[in-house]
Amino acid sequence: MNATEQLVSWIQESTKIVFFGGAGTSTESGIPDFRSAAGLYQTEQHSPYPPEELLSRHFFNQHADIFYDFYRGKMLHPQAEPNGCHRLLARLENEGRLQAVITQNIDGLHQKAGSKNVLELHGSVHRNACMDCKRFYSLDDIIRSQDIVPRCISCGGVVKPDVVLYEEELDQNTLYLSVDAISTADLLLVGGTSLTVQPAAQLITYFQGKHTVLLNATPTAYDRQADLLITEPIGEVMNTVDQLLG
């Protein structure tokens, strides 16, 4: 039995699967990750501001125009479509096998594939709000805005994406729900994440179930604790799993 067949077997015997994923989940959909050789943190090295600076709360407060130039150019991918990973997870949820998707991504591709119980640790580009009156704005509103910094049509306040920037705390209720889902899962699938971003990466330590499967192209500090390692592209692997499940 090869690794993919083993994964299929464990999925078939599980009823409380949880998926914990990062940027690598969406690279096959054409969205670059952050820390790989082709990721944003590498390709932006020659910018006057490192990405960690550009994506910090204090930088947004002081230089919203520069933030939005980077954000629109590098972090918005409205044409991206779900890949095999997103589609399989939606199928497993629909079949009652998967109880939650916990993601560090902000792209909304899990919902686009059909997943409903998605816990977004770092927020979503699809939710935006005026910092003053809290009026909601969609991703389309941000893209269509003629202003460098989108402004509220009600009060003129700055519109901020509902994404967690450096120096901001994660939503406590989302963290609570994530811990609850992982701690009650019988199979934990971890995919497309370097497991270096805290506190998100610490969440998988709450798992007490049968098997942990790590699907990641590069090594992580958690490799030795996983029951199964798969390094092939996650979308391709999940497509194969989908086919083998019938």
UniProtKB/TrEMBL annotation:
Gene3D superfamilies: SIR2/SIRT2 'Small Domain, TPP-binding domain. InterPro entries: DHS-like_NAD/FAD-binding_dom, NAD-dep_sirtuin_deacylases, Sirtuin, Sirtuin_cat_small_dom_sf, Sirtuin_class_U, Ssirtuin_cat_dom. The active site is at residue 122. NAD(+) binds at residues 23, 27, 34-35, 104, 106-107, 122, 193-194, 216-217, 234. Keywords: Cytoplasm, Hydrolase, Metal-binding, NAD, Transferase, Zinc. The keyword Thylakoid does not apply. Zn(2+) binds at residues 130, 133, 152, 155. Belongs to the sirtuin family. Class U subfamily. This is NAD-dependent protein deacetylase. It comes from Paenibacillus tundrae. The lineage of its organism: Bacteria, Bacillati, Bacillota, Bacilli, Bacillales.
